[in-house]
Amino acid sequence: MKTKASETGDRRDVSRKKAEKFRQYAVDYLDAKKSVPTGFDLAPTFEKRKELIKAKFGASEEDWLNWKWQLSNRFSDVSALEQIFSLSAKQKEDFSRIQAEFRWAFTPYFASLMDHEDESCPVRKQMLPDIREMAMTGVADFSGEEYSSPVENLVRWYPDRVAVHVTNVCAGFCRHCLRRRKIGEVDKATPKDNIGEILDYLRANPEIRDVLLTGGDPFTFSTEKLDELLSALDEIEHIEIKRIGSRAPIVLPQRVDEELCEMLSKHHPLFVNVQVNHPKELTADSARALDLLSRAGIPLHNQSVLMRGINDSPVIIKALGHELLKVRVRPYYLYHCQGTIGIEHFRTPVETGIEILEELRGYTTGLGIPSYIITPPGFGKTPLGPEYQISSGDGYVLLRNWEGIVYRYENPRPVD
Ligand SMILES: *Cc1c(COP(=O)(O)O)cnc(C)c1O
């Protein structure tokens, strides 16, 4: 088919108009994004706070880089906290009160990412207790894990995969934790005989091809102990893939070293899912940890929790997706915040997540868009999102594109 020069000109004209419209969408976003600094942007501030915290603890650089030092020096009581954060007398009293009900702790490293004055800091809000927790609305086991545990600490919601809670230890106890009922008062790994029962269950159920190790945080285990557990799973022939859910690369990036990665790379296919909720959590340190894991051949995905006042805006979630892709982590899930006890103040209406996805699809790559997930009690994960099919009729479906342009799409009938 030949095209006349004038037609080519028309097409170019139409294309240029459209391109200008697309450019404008991007410009609007880039403007809005200026209000969402990443951890990389804030590096000099973080560095200053790190030095301040080290001085208060009398810690050396070597201590700081040692994950065991980070873990055993977690901020976990008011007296340590008030040396660094500006707290009112009321806050100090509140924090002690909350501690009696819901334990809190976080690494000195993560404290260096928090604004010590500004309470609206998205990193601080995830870790510092809030008196609204004491409203005690919600339920301890919202997702009904305890009614889905054929064996203690193994949760089965699905035909082919299970989640196993291997410890209650975490580098930081997120305020929004859905398993805060399991945190308890002291750090405790799942007992050996319980792990034995779990392995027996896995051996006896050959349809289970996918085991997700979670917690707590499995990366709080020693390298040897994690190696042992992964080896036991490797020996079960029907387990095709293993996954680890860990926030350590973000809250305790010092944990991820060559030795850990070398061990992990012996257990492929192994996937790691991390949790980043705001671009401010991505720093040179977490990027280094994620890079090491990637180089060990581990595909990385991110699971975020949608939280009011932390990341409940399209600009933040979009910027987060972009920052994650830059460190080779794919956004996987964006969870609607569950009705777990004491976290009501973080919850958004269900619609918020759908509206956010509406502003992502098309405006950025599908690689940077998570699935939005609701977890109703006892029923596993349910994806929700904007609808792109408006209706259907005989031989067609009526669709809209990401900008809202409606079109009729012929529905092919099978031909012989
Ligand atoms: C989230 C979860 C899984 C894994 O779900 P995917 O959709 O495969 O990532 C498996 N079991 C339980 C109990 C879970 O909570």
Q: Please, how many domains? A: 4
CATH homologous superfamily of the largest domain, by name? Aldolase class I
CATH class group of the largest domain: Alpha Beta
The small-molecule ligands in this entry are: pyridoxal-5'-phosphate
Overall shape: it is globular
Number of helices: 16
Largest sheet: 9 strands, mixed
Q: Structural class, from secondary structure content?
A: alpha/beta
Question: What strand line-up does the widest sheet have?
Answer: 1-2-3-4-5-6-7-8-9
CATH architecture of the largest domain: Alpha-Beta Barrel
CATH fold category name of the largest domain: TIM Barrel
Output the helix-strand order.
HHHHHHHHEEHHEHEHHEHEHEHEEEEE
**If you average the pLDDT, what whole number results?**
95
The level of helicity is 25-40%
As residue ranges, the low-confidence spans are none
Task: Give a count of the beta strands, DSSP E runs of length 2 or more.
Answer: 12
Relative strand content: 5-15%
What Rg do the Cα atoms give? Answer: 24 Å
Can you walk me through this structure?
- The chain has helices spanning 5-33, 43-57, 61-65, 67-72, 78-81, 89-101, 108-111, 122-127, 180-183, 192-204, 223-234, 248-251, 258-264, 284-295, 314-326, 350-358; strands at 154-155, 161-165, 210-214, 241-245, 270-274, 300-306, 330-336, 371-374, 382-384, 389-393, 396-400, 406-410.
- The protein is α/β, with parallel strands linked by helices and 416 residues long.
- The protein has 4 domains: 1-34; 43-130, no CATH class; 145-384, TIM Barrel (Alpha-Beta Barrel); 388-416, no CATH class.
- The strands form 2 sheets. Strands 1-2-3-4-5-6-7-8-9 form a 9-stranded mixed β-sheet.
- A hairpin with a 7-residue loop joins strand 8 (371-374) and strand 9 (382-384).
- The model has no long low-confidence stretch (mean pLDDT 95).
- The chain binds pyridoxal-5'-phosphate.
